[in-house]
Write a structure and sequence with these properties.
Length: 320
């Protein structure tokens, strides 16, 4: 058996190794689905119940928790620390930060319908990127599926009257799709390229993500250094309940990020996209789990980490 569930080593027997990879893929996928659904409700509590609306700050807390989690896992012997070149890990951190930032702006500049349809294009984008990065070509059936998907998105978006005058919004959405696809493809390809396990790669890239998110938080959030009002980060009322909700959200974010890397490492970015999107989108509908959660009366939240791009919503919620 391997050193740890995030290890790159496997059983000596080929058949045993194949079975182990299969169990690892299924287990990682289940962990991703469960943790992503759980973080939906945790973030609902953070944003709506306790009114902590500092998106970049929460993402920073998630990144810090993930980085500390990797340090703790290494100390417990779950994986061996492997020093990786910064030239390889910094771009991965930049891709992570990029997709968070650009999806935020996409939601601000576009209607929610366009925002949601843009997310559908991540899978075709991953396929195209994998052709260039890993020389992986989709099957004929997969190609037909992606063509139909793109045509469906095109037909749906042309009916939006705002598209003709919102070229900036479309450009931002396209950039967000590219960053998302790049992040997912690199999450898989760099594990193979650097011969590093999921945990080893996360251990090396998350500190860079923390540094980048720290800068974004300082620039984009109302810190309240001079005047800590209740609507600022330093003036927020960190009650026991609010603090607990933030901590739970951060711990779930660690599981989401870890299971994302484990799943992509055991399968592929395309398999991850298709497998995770389907069960997560199924509950969306009349109440329960929806695609977004209101952060204020006009706009909703965009994704925070990994595949956590679903939010809890009440029936009749107006997302725009």
């Amino acid at each position: 058996m391997p050193r740890g569930f995030g290890g790159a080593e496997g059983p000596a027997s080929p058949s045993a190794a194949s079975k182990y990879q299969g169990f690892k893929a299924v287990g990682s996928l289940l962990l991703n689905v469960v943790s992503t659904c759980a973080i939906v409700f945790a973030n609902k509590a953070v944003f709506s119940v306790y009114n902590f609306k500092f998106l970049y700050a929460l993402t920073l807390i998630h990144s810090i928790t993930t980085a500390l989690g990797m340090v703790a896992f290494a100390a417990l012997g779950m994986f061996q620390v492997k020093q990786l070149p910064a030239a390889e890990t910094v771009p991965l951190a930049l891709a992570f930060v990029g997709y968070v930032v650009f999806w935020n702006y996409s939601l601000k500049l576009n209607t929610v319908g366009v925002y949601q349809l843009s997310k559908v294009l991540i899978t075709p984008a991953v396929v195209v990127l994998e052709i260039f990065v890993s020389n992986k070509y989709p099957t004929a059936a997969e190609t037909c599926t992606f063509v139909v998907t793109c045509l469906g998105v095109a037909l749906a978006t042309v009916t939006d009257p705002n598209l003709s005058t919102n070229t900036l919004g479309l450009a931002i959405s396209a950039t967000a799709v590219c960053f998302s696809a790049l992040y997912q493809v690199w999450a898989g390809s760099k594990q193979k390229q650097l011969q590093a396990s999921s945990m080893q790669l996360m251990h090396q890239y998350t500190p860079h993500a923390v540094a980048m998110m720290s800068v974004l938080t300082a620039v984009c959030e109302p810190l309240g250094v001079r005047d800590p009002q209740p609507d600022t980060l330093l003036g927020f009322d960190y009650t026991l309940g609010a603090s607990a909700a933030i901590i739970v959200s951060a711990l779930l974010a660690l599981l989401v990020s870890l299971s994302t890397f484990l799943t992509i490492g055991a399968t592929s970015a395309v398999t991850f996209n298709v497998s995770v999107s389907t069960p997560l989108l199924t509950p969306a509908g009349s109440g329960g789990v929806g695609l977004l959660v209101d952060l204020d009366s006009e706009k909703a939240s965009s994704p925070l980490v990994g595949r956590a791009d679903l939010r809890y919503s009440k029936p009749g919620t107006n997302f725009v």
